[in-house]
Amino acid sequence: MTTPLRDEAQNPATSPERLHELISLPGKRGDIDSDAGWCREYVAANPSVALATLKELAADQDDFMARLNAAKNPALDEQTLWTLIEDTNDMVADAARERLGLIPRPRPNAVARAVRIPVIDPKTGRVIKP
User: How sure is the predictor about 128, in pLDDT bands with cuts at 50, 70 and 90?
Assistant: First the structure.
């Protein structure tokens, strides 16, 4: 459901000052119908947001969607991205790592898969063993 406040938060023509106001709307941010939470997410993704506002959203440990959208926003500075690569949320950490050109964060319970390297016949150039 879209509301005028959410539309304003998504609009790239909205001023950076107004975008900063929209991240402080009263209301329960966890409520699905609340503009308070949605506007924070939309502002974090808005390309017109001021860097100070984006840093504030990237540091909010209670709102992982705002941190995720901030990490994906090209306006976020590299220094803040480096702080997000160790975020408690894997999606946020991986978004920051991707923007910095790093590999995704290793998962502790990930299973390594064997890689089969084919054996090539040097004379023919054909695969001997797959």
Answer: confident
CA atoms within 13 A on the CB side of 37: 11
Q: SS3 of 93, please?
A: helix
Joined tokens for residue 51: 């860097």
Per-residue pLDDT at 116: 75
Helix or strand (DSSP H, E) at 127: strand 127-129
Q: Pick the closest to residue 95 from 72, 76, 73, 75 (CA basis).
A: 72
Q: At what angle do helices 35-45 and 64-72 cross, to 10 degrees?
A: 20
pLDDT band at 54 (very low <50, low <70, confident <90, very high): very high
Could you tell me the pTM of the whole model?
Answer: 0.78
Pull the structure tokens for residue 114.
């064997």
Q: What is the C-alpha separation between 18 and 25, in angstroms, rounded?
A: 11
The b/e string for 61-100 (b: 16+ C-beta within 10 A; e otherwise) is eebebbbbbbbbbeebeeebbeebbebeeeebbbbbbebe
